[in-house]
Amino acid sequence: MSLELTILGFNSAVPTAYSHPSAQLLNIAERYFLIDCGEGTQVQLRKAKAKFNRINNIFISHLHGDHVFGLVGLISTLQLLGRDTPLNIHGPKGIEEFIMTQLRLTESNCSFKIVFNELSGKESVLVFEDDKVEVFSIPLNHRIYTNGYLFREKSKQRKLNMDAIEQYPEIEICDYQNLKNGRDYVMEDGTIIDNEDLTFEGPRALSYAYCSDTKYKPNIIPIIKGVDLLYHESTFLHEAKDLANYTGHSTAKEAGIIARDAEVGKLILGHFSNRYHDYSLLLNEAKIEFENTVLPKLLGTIKIKP
Amino acid sequence: MSLELTILGFNSAVPTAYSHPSAQLLNIAERYFLIDCGEGTQVQLRKAKAKFNRINNIFISHLHGDHVFGLVGLISTLQLLGRDTPLNIHGPKGIEEFIMTQLRLTESNCSFKIVFNELSGKESVLVFEDDKVEVFSIPLNHRIYTNGYLFREKSKQRKLNMDAIEQYPEIEICDYQNLKNGRDYVMEDGTIIDNEDLTFEGPRALSYAYCSDTKYKPNIIPIIKGVDLLYHESTFLHEAKDLANYTGHSTAKEAGIIARDAEVGKLILGHFSNRYHDYSLLLNEAKIEFENTVLPKLLGTIKIKP
Questions:
Q1: In which residues is Zn(2+) 1 bound (chains A, B) (predicted)?
Q2: Distance (Å) from the alpha carbon of B108 to chain A's nearest alpha carbon
Q3: What ipTM was estimated for this complex?
């Protein structure tokens, strides 16, 4: 099991022939999550050879066009493809009106149910969970109400230490699940055998944090602490700090500081202003703060293994 | 002066890496009109090297996504480009709510005024005019309320016949505009000289009709009679006539019949279903009815000279 993040677009503001607004496809524990959906995202999904019908949850950070203008077109296409399973859309308050007004006026009779999960709080909350994964909001600080998202595998089961277990003939196969779940074993005579004596640690649960768009906001660090992979916007170089502040964005240096202080595994930059053509300037600035920083590659996939 | 039509997209329904939904840029008498605006149109405009700020009027045929999902993104980009001149959007009733709901929820403070001209009638009406051009609606028959548009240069001024004029020394330069406008000349002694004796016919006024989406609707013929260029949708081959009828579309054969009976100069087909890869089948079918039929070429420009 690994975590795979495919970058569908990483530019800010205006789409062009060569720059695509924010959108990512995350595969975590074989769940396919679409994160943000700027105009043209459905075409980027096709180019990435993504299977549209595997996407059951879409997470929208905020209602700026470069993060959401592709959503209604994607929904329309899912309908034309004959989808019938429900689609869950998580996003800021207003997203239901945003989508449903368009579907009503285009007289679209959606062939599947859309379940909206509107967020409006200022604290991190559990947004989604199933048996394998949980997703939390990361309240950010932008010009408009915005959340990042923390995607986390649930703690994985421990591995059985069969050599140790075989020394206790009274432990039966039906006890194995309890051991994998971390429970100690209680012998018939009342003796307790520590779980750690019967099992090994399981594979590490993986995690990914998406933080865009936001000003430098160090109080997200406790939420994203130790994630394997962090995407943090870096719209500007630090020399444009005033502009970053005015427009509610971060600099590459600030993204690096957040990554360093949150002790993440790897940092990906993104949401670059169209003023920059040589992204290595942004990369180098962030790397001074946090060495394991990479640039996004359009339609490239970053794999994280346990 | 000529009429130039640039095809930004000509496919129906679902955008892909290689097929783009309906959008056209028309230059008629140096007026730049955008006709329909499917998702990704702003990128197509960039690829066509169009000057965004020359576009002051946008004509939307109907509120299906493949004709309108790119409009809010284009407006958003115009705003980021610092536009301050008003933008006129002509389209079906509902288009103002469609756009303004999105601008409100994305908290866009538009830097320019958007003037909506909502159509709801069933008769052809004058939609726009200035000193050079007039635009009329063409009521169509689709699943949802739809209009095509007829773009027509106003009758052009007559050309002065200087050899004839010089025979009348009392005709002065200040009289020339009246002659160009077609007025007869009245001599001081009351004699009337026919305008046709003093001028030649001016260059022919050009016209273009955009008809998409629609079932076969022969009663549009009086409206589009004799246009220089007709775009008529041909979503299907005639063997799929039942499907065309069910979905409110035309076949290539029907597009050809409309062009023939309306005695147009040239027919362009378009709005092809994604089921077709060899468009020559559609072309050949239409050509049986009307020889001067062409296929659209992505980002290609068709020029019509007087």
A1: 62, 64, 142, 213
A2: 8
A3: 0.89
